[in-house]
Amino acid sequence: MTINHQIHLVSRPAGEAVADNFHMVRTRLPTTLADGQVLVRHHYMSLDPYMRGRMNDAKSYAAPQPLNEVMQGGTVGEVVDSKSPAFAVGDKVVGMGGWQEYQVVDAGKPGMLRKVSTEHVPLSAYLGAVGMPGVTAWYGLTQIIAPKEGQTVLVSAASGAVGSAVGQLAKVRGARAVGIAGGPQKCAYVVDELGFDACIDYRQHADLKSFSQALKQACPDGIDGVFENVGGLGLDAALQRMNAFGRIALCGMIAGYDGQPIPLQQPQLLLTHRLRLEGFIVSEHMELWPQALTELATLVGTGKLKYRETVAEGLAAAPEAFLGLLKGRNFGKQLVKLV
Amino acid sequence: MTINHQIHLVSRPAGEAVADNFHMVRTRLPTTLADGQVLVRHHYMSLDPYMRGRMNDAKSYAAPQPLNEVMQGGTVGEVVDSKSPAFAVGDKVVGMGGWQEYQVVDAGKPGMLRKVSTEHVPLSAYLGAVGMPGVTAWYGLTQIIAPKEGQTVLVSAASGAVGSAVGQLAKVRGARAVGIAGGPQKCAYVVDELGFDACIDYRQHADLKSFSQALKQACPDGIDGVFENVGGLGLDAALQRMNAFGRIALCGMIAGYDGQPIPLQQPQLLLTHRLRLEGFIVSEHMELWPQALTELATLVGTGKLKYRETVAEGLAAAPEAFLGLLKGRNFGKQLVKLV
């Protein structure tokens, strides 16, 4: 009999999320699996900004995270027991195991578990550049922004799991990539290591005029596409600098998750610049995942798509690591390592 | 020798546009036309909300209206002299003649003048339902919103030249049409005469909660498409009621033309509802005009597309009629009758 630790959501945030919203629970795994079941030991858990939205009990694109149940989320791990012909002990798998050490999975249900190869791609990358964040970047860039060669793509949260992939995928397509990130260290990483053409430190620009001026310098030919992970001042400034017929892939509004929404100051610019703005959730476009994952795995395997990880150690560290992610304390993809 | 009166823009508005921004000028027409020229006597001039935007000296989709020149705008009239083989005296024509009684046109330039038939369609309708406003409605509805049968389309400024056509075109396609208009008289017209399924009087809803509640009642299945002519509170409320994958055709933001822009209060709803918003200018899609005009003329000719006109008499009445239009004092398409 094996002990399994889980982290549950036990209360909803009133404003800012806090550690007390979470609670660790000790459970037992079943002694034997039923036919078709697989026992997965999680090696890494993914922490993602979208989880904050699900902590609220509000109408959104996904059902709220239920109270007093294990926090949902992506996981990678290894099959340690199997009564499914499709999975053998030792297989490396990607799933939605949630914030816990083990998960019993009904392997027969489609989409529950996917076997992956770690020959050219590290296991943890299947939660990042070759996983949901990478496909998110790929979808927004290729299906909404669709930059032409030489056009300028602006990406907020540019050092993060999604943003870093957006800029590199844009460069592969011959576009100019300009990032927005917090602090000189992240900005240097975005330009020097990821190969963006420029990066703006939003902490240096407290008002719209200053931010807009910085964008003008970084984007001398204007902005043709915005991949928006943040919202707020950066988006307001970007709207001022967009070229006619620009595209905005709206992926996240992290700045507004806590408390009040952040208004868009000049919506009339969407009209005067004839912009197209599209909100999207990558899990609603599963038909494109195979195509996206093939490109992403190839680019990671050949060193053309770089990424960075911030790794918290042990399940108990997950809540604080998640709260830090919401405040931008991570650097690249935020993971929790369990094994 | 013929006298021609014109109205010029002589100053730019500081905030609200006022009558003093305009000035009437008396000019003389040339005694003889050059080869290829046509002299058109204007019967009707079109007054449109977009003209307010051009009065500002700001970056926009069109160059600003130059100072001390005739106000630009659509016109219909009759050829009274011609040195062009393409036009004969007596031809009815649509053009961009501006706020003046006559215009000398270089008829050889493409797009300057279009001959029209008044057999089934009244001349003035070529400035409204079978002209730029009608094509604007057609483009936003069919190319951006593209409603499926049974879906709900919300239209602001629903009794206006564009909005009235949007709702009727939606009904022709089997969609549900819900309007927003100012006052009980306009709302009754929208439902009883134009055949919309419901109409909300925005004057009855001073805050977001009240407006949103009214939309919930008028749109029990949610909103699938918004044709936005106004912006502000109505758009904020509509966002709250939109269904997943809804489309917003952004055509006008009349509420923000004077002075400060009106922020969009909850832009995060664009993401949570996975909406697509597109700003457009119908003059940039000329390739679709023939298709649109064919449908619009057929519908008007067969009585299936109704419209109303507010007609000011004489060139001197144009400034006040235009200022009234900006305040919603017109009812349907605002015209100035010159002959």
Short note summarizing the structure:
The structure is a homodimer of 339-residue chains. Chain A has 339 residues and is an alpha/beta fold. In chain A, 26% of the residues lie in helices and 26% in strands.
Please, could you describe this protein's structure?
Two copies of one chain form a homodimer. Chain A is an alpha/beta fold and 339 residues long. Chain A folds into two domains: 3-128 and 308-337, Alpha-Beta Complex (Quinone Oxidoreductase, Chain A, domain 1); 132-283, 3-Layer(aba) Sandwich (Rossmann fold), CATH 3.40.50.720. Chain A is 26% helix and 26% strand. Chain A contains nine helices and 15 strands. In chain A, strands 3, 4, 5, 6, 7, 14 and 15 form a seven-stranded mixed beta sheet that branches. In chain A, helix 2 (132-145) packs across helix 3 (161-172) and helix 5 packs across helix 6 (233-241). The first copy, chain A, starts with a strand and ends with a strand. The mean pLDDT of chain A is 95. Chains A and B meet through helix 7 and strand 13 of A and helix 7 and strand 13 of B. Strand 13 (276-279) of chain A pairs antiparallel with strand 13 of chain B, so a sheet runs across the interface.
